[in-house]
From TrEMBL, chain A:
Ligase in keyword set: no
Keyword Signal: yes
Classification via PANTHER family: BETA-HEXOSAMINIDASE (PTHR22600), BETA-HEXOSAMINIDASE SUBUNIT ALPHA (PTHR22600:SF39)
GO terms, molecular function: beta-N-acetylhexosaminidase activity
Organism: Sparus aurata
UniProt EC number: 3.2.1.52
Subunit structure: There are 3 beta-hexosaminidase isozymes: isozyme A (hexosaminidase A) is a heterodimer composed of one subunit alpha and one subunit beta (chain A and B); isozyme B (hexosaminidase B) is a homodimer of two beta subunits (two chains A and B); isozyme S (hexosaminidase S) is a homodimer of two alpha subunits. The composition of the dimer (isozyme A versus isozyme S) has a significant effect on the substrate specificity of the alpha subunit active site.
SUPFAM superfamilies hit by this protein: (Trans)glycosidases (SSF51445), beta-N-acetylhexosaminidase-like domain (SSF55545)
Descriptive protein name: Beta-hexosaminidase
Residues in the signal sequence: 1-34
Swiss-Prot/TrEMBL catalytic activity: beta-D-GalNAc-(1->4)-alpha-L-IdoA-(1->3)-beta-D-GalNAc-4-sulfate-(1->4)-alpha-L-IdoA-(1->3)-D-GalNAc-4-sulfate + H2O = alpha-L-IdoA-(1->3)-beta-D-GalNAc-4-sulfate-(1->4)-alpha-L-IdoA-(1->3)-D-GalNAc-4-sulfate + N-acetyl-D-galactosamine; N-acetyl-beta-D-6-sulfogalactosaminyl-(1->4)-alpha-L-iduronyl-(1->3)-N-acetyl-D-6-sulfogalactosamine + H2O = alpha-L-iduronyl-(1->3)-N-acetyl-D-6-sulfogalactosamine + N-acetyl-D-6-sulfogalactosamine; N-acetyl-beta-D-galactosaminyl-(1->4)-beta-D-3-sulfogalactosyl-(1->4)-beta-D-glucosyl-(1<->1')-ceramide + H2O = a beta-D-3-sulfogalactosyl-(1->4)-beta-D-glucosyl-(1<->1')-ceramide + N-acetyl-beta-D-galactosamine; a ganglioside GM2 (d18:1(4E)) + H2O = a ganglioside GM3 (d18:1(4E)) + N-acetyl-beta-D-galactosamine
Lineage, opening ranks: Eukaryota, Metazoa, Chordata, Craniata, Vertebrata
From TrEMBL, chain B:
Principal subcellular localization: other
Annotated catalytic residues: 296
Similarity annotation: Belongs to the glycosyl hydrolase 20 family.
Biological role: Hydrolyzes the non-reducing end N-acetyl-D-hexosamine and/or sulfated N-acetyl-D-hexosamine of glycoconjugates, such as the oligosaccharide moieties from proteins and neutral glycolipids, or from certain mucopolysaccharides. The isozyme S is as active as the isozyme A on the anionic bis-sulfated glycans, the chondroitin-6-sulfate trisaccharide (C6S-3), and the dermatan sulfate pentasaccharide, and the sulfated glycosphingolipid SM2. The isozyme B does not hydrolyze each of these substrates, however hydrolyzes efficiently neutral oligosaccharide.
Record protein name field: Beta-hexosaminidase
The EC number(s) this enzyme carries: 3.2.1.52
Record's GO cellular component terms: lysosome; membrane
Quaternary structure (record): There are 3 beta-hexosaminidase isozymes: isozyme A (hexosaminidase A) is a heterodimer composed of one subunit alpha and one subunit beta (chain A and B); isozyme B (hexosaminidase B) is a homodimer of two beta subunits (two chains A and B); isozyme S (hexosaminidase S) is a homodimer of two alpha subunits. The composition of the dimer (isozyme A versus isozyme S) has a significant effect on the substrate specificity of the alpha subunit active site.
Species of origin: Sparus aurata
Subcellular location: Lysosome
Gene for this chain: HEXA
The Beta-hexosaminidase eukaryotic type N-terminal domain, residue ranges: 91-118
The reaction(s) this protein catalyses: a ganglioside GM2 (d18:1(4E)) + H2O = a ganglioside GM3 (d18:1(4E)) + N-acetyl-beta-D-galactosamine; N-acetyl-beta-D-galactosaminyl-(1->4)-beta-D-3-sulfogalactosyl-(1->4)-beta-D-glucosyl-(1<->1')-ceramide + H2O = a beta-D-3-sulfogalactosyl-(1->4)-beta-D-glucosyl-(1<->1')-ceramide + N-acetyl-beta-D-galactosamine; N-acetyl-beta-D-6-sulfogalactosaminyl-(1->4)-alpha-L-iduronyl-(1->3)-N-acetyl-D-6-sulfogalactosamine + H2O = alpha-L-iduronyl-(1->3)-N-acetyl-D-6-sulfogalactosamine + N-acetyl-D-6-sulfogalactosamine; Hydrolysis of terminal non-reducing N-acetyl-D-hexosamine residues in N-acetyl-beta-D-hexosaminides
Length: 557, 496
């Protein structure tokens, strides 16, 4: 494999991997079933090499732009060491720690690049002396700057990974960790393999809903772990909604003290949020916050009187409230302050504004809203009022240098937004409509995993073809990715994990891998079964796909 | 006089609903420092009764989950008296004293569960119990849950956890569908090859004799019987690996195809093997019932086999393979009868036998089948409407709740033959990762149907808040019970 894949660094994080792994799938007693999601190009040989935790090190290459002190990779090294050697203990004598560095790096070093590259090298030697087991290899991983695409290569004397960004390096380490396996005697091996890799879509998200049920921070962190194992890179945090407002705002503390299920135990403090964001970052996962309005805001009204539209019945207020009141200047002042806070708390350059399922009944019933409609010349067209509202919110977030994402319901009205398609039916028709308008789109419709169904439904989520619509190359590039939605009506920390995994992993492969190589459910099935066992081994409560067993069953009971 | 409406955190009640329940808004503080369970002086059971000694300990922790040996205060002290009574089990709580009268120790365990659900905490963490009078007894005597440990292996810990949760909902039968086609995890002392060759893994995916004993004795302390099922002649693929010659070789075009069908009913060796196996099973599992399976026998392989056909001729069965099946089951029932066990079979084979109890499992008009069985004078267990392994939205609980097991035309005498019902949790898509949320709280809805008076529990709307409250209690007890709908519990699940 000597494919050179030049990448351009766009405005988004790209984790483009170019992995040259020399590893065997078919042979050996416990051959690797492969990597999930499937790399773009994968060749392996039956030749296998022992890997010994005593002699295994990740080391930054001398010329690497990233060096020790790079917190993302320092942490990733530590984390992946434990994932690769789950039963590692510091038993053996230190004399086995012979590191022999590879002196010949396949270089082509160019000078500075604004991108970080890494070179992951595996150096081996036969340590017949110093009391070390003779047939062990020692492993060192170097990171060097490379102006070639990300790649990882493992052979008898060498393992190398080139990644353009640290995030790519993290994905590469995940790939590497899935290639190491244990035989029946507990020894670790890795086979000769070559891999080229990069993601098909740049946006690979999972939505969690923390309003319909509160999810303890620990449940979110665990989900981030599992997301990284499947190479998801966006955590879409649908943090508030009608039932509760668990986000503790520093500007408007009443929102959670009055709008959360419980003001102390069922909230996310500023430090909780920071913890989630920094934890996600170390896995190369962005946190995309959603503050959905003007609908889905019942809980907001408790802590912010005057924000919601009072509904009328028979000429008098009925005591109930509808969507955010779009007729009042105070609404936009409030939103500006709230989103100013949100923008600084959540560093991601995107913010999700929601905009879905706005019910016009309450607006229509309210005389002040109707007067406002007249004044604005909207006549009786409440979609114009909705558009007006969203336009204002988009202006607010634009001024804060954030790009807005909205649900498909309100895409018609705006040119500066990215659109998430969520409705069932002919979702590709809608995708086509959006890209024809020149907007970028995220597809969620086929991946509503909160809908209960048999686990073997994984195939339904797998056999989705996001680009199977008539359109130009240019238009198809506007489909930037997809998202698994895990709404919270019937989901909380008790069932989140088995409902999400391994079905979300099926989506992950659709979003990461080459479609032609991953079109067969039958071929994917044993690989996904194997991957699910890896998830169990890593403590993820992933439910079974069908009858069978894993060497290490789930132990967290 | 129910005090559900009063008090800051009033009790939502008991699940499953007791037969008679009266409570007053009057509440009494309960302090873990001063709380004791004591055997009544005239009680037949006294200290040393392991079931109640253990139950006392266990329920103390369940009632006071955050008990620490803090401040003794000016609280009333509580003593629970157990006295032998020849009246139905009843529980009465008044100031400083609660007394539980139960006819059996098992009734006492159920009563302790009821009591534990009556104690609640206010916002300051103080415990209270309201003045309450309860008379209670179960509507059906058989309230079971089936776990399938063949399609997926369930670690012993997962079984024990399920037993805990069963006790909280007053289930009393653990139907252990221990072996089936995919694997044979039961480690037989007579035939060790069955698991060493038929389990998913001969060391890590088996139930040793000591595992089985542990499950049985753990279940017993909760008042739960363990009903073993060794399903035959179908569903036995895994048996064949460790017991060559047991299964019927299938033929294709006059020669053996290399595949195997159900147990071979034509060979005397089959019955010798079964006699020895069931002899072991009878001594390992003390319950007086044994489940013989008998479901879904496919006749294709028997029909293809020339030896089986010869045997059919010899026995005068002609071409009627149901007669062969009946002959086989008859033989197995004879074996278990000789071991003083009563046999239970799936509905598929009920036609042929008079000494069995029948479990109705097929979908469709299951009450028609129930009626058919009781008309034949046999006892019946209903499982059809309660296949909880079938995935569906959680709010399906109402579907499981609104089942009326006796809504068929029949005499009082016949209706008495419906001895209970069972939740089936088959293992195709279920293992330790998703067993608990798939089972609870939906199985609790079934529990109320099987325990409580039907007239008092016919409304889904009335049951909903009580079940929500009960589900929060399950979370508080560490049971990973999934939510019924949007909302929250004071103590969310922490086991992540």
């Amino acid at each position: 494999m000597d494919v050179m894949f030049m990448i351009t660094c766009g405005r988004y994080i790209r984790s483009i991997l170019y992995l040259l792994l020399l590893i065997s799938v078919q042979f050996g007693p416990h051959a690797v079933e492969g990597v999930w999601p499937l790399p773009q190009a994968f060749t392996s040989s039956p030749e296998r090499y022992p890997v010994n935790s005593q002699d295994f090190y990740f080391v930054y290459g001398r010329q690497s732009a990233a060096q020790q002190g790079c917190s993302v990779l320092d942490t990733a090294f530590k984390r992946y060491f434990s994932l690769i050697f789950p039963d590692h203990n510091s038993g053996r004598s230190a004399s086995t720690m012979a590191i022999v560095r590879v002196t010949q790096m396949r270089t082509l070093l160019r000078d500075v690049s604004i991108n970080q590259h890494m070179y992951l090298s595996h150096s081996t030697t036969r340590n017949g002396h110093n009391g070390s087991p003779a047939d062990r290899l020692s492993w060192t991983i170097y990171l060097v700057p490379f102006c070639v695409p990300d790649n990882l290569s493992i052979s008898a004397g060498k393992a190398s990974l080139n990644a353009e960004t640290v995030w790519g390096a993290v994905r590469g380490l995940e790939t590497f960790s899935q290639l190491v396996y244990q035989d029946d005697f507990g020894s670790y091996f890795v086979n000769k393999t070559e891999i080229d890799d990069f993601p098909r879509f740049q946006f690979r998200g999972i939505l969690l809903d923390t309003s319909r049920h509160f999810l303890p921070v620990q449940a979110i962190l665990k989900t981030l772990d599992a997301m990284a194992y499947s190479k998801f890179n966006v955590f879409h945090w649908h943090i508030v909604d009608d039932p509760s407002f668990p986000y503790q705002s520093s500007t408007f503390p009443d929102l959670s003290s009055k709008g959360a299920f419980h003001p102390m135990t069922h909230i996310y403090t500023q430090s909780d949020v920071r913890r989630v964001i920094s934890y996600a970052r170390l896995w190369g996962i962005r946190v995309l916050p959603e503050f959905d309005s003007p609908g889905h805001t019942t809980s907001w009204g408790k802590g912010q009187p005057g924000l919601l539209t009072p509904c009328y019945k028979g000429g008098t207020p009925s005591g109930t409230f509808g969507p955010v009141n779009p007729a009042l200047p105070s609404t936009y002042r409030f939103m500006a302050r709230l989103f100013k806070e949100v923008s600084s708390v959540f560093p991601d350059s995107y913010v999700h504004l929601g905009g879905d399922e706005v019910d016009f009944h309450c607006w229509r019933s309210n005389p002040d809203v109707r007067v406002f409609m007249q004044k604005m010349g909207f006549g009786g067209d409440f979609t114009k009022l909705e558009a007006f509202y969203i336009e204002n919110i988009v202006n607010i977030t634009s001024a804060l240098n954030k790009t807005s994402i909205v649900w498909q319901d309100v895409f018609d009205y705006h040119e500066r937004v990215m659109v998430e398609v969520w409705r069932a039916g002919c979702y590709l028709c809608e995708v086509r409509r959006v890209v024809k308008a020149g907007l970028r789109v995220i597809l969620a419709s086929p991946w509503y995993l909160d809908q209960p169904g048999p686990t073997h439904n994984w195939a339904r989520y797998y056999t989705v073809w996001p680009l199977a619509f008539k359109g130009s190359e240019e238009q198809k590039k506007l489909v930037i990715g997809g998202e698994v939605c895990m709404w919270g009506e019937y989901v909380d920390a008790t069932n989140l994990t088995p409902r999400l995994w391994p079905r979300a992993s099926a989506v992950a492969e659709r979003l990461w891998s080459d479609e032609k190589q991953t079109s067969s459910v039958d071929k994917a099935f044993p690989r996904l079964q194997d991957f699910r066992c890896k998830l169990l081994r890593r403590g993820i409560q992933a439910e079974p796909l069908y009858v069978g067993h894993c060497k290490h069953e789930y132990q967290g009971i």
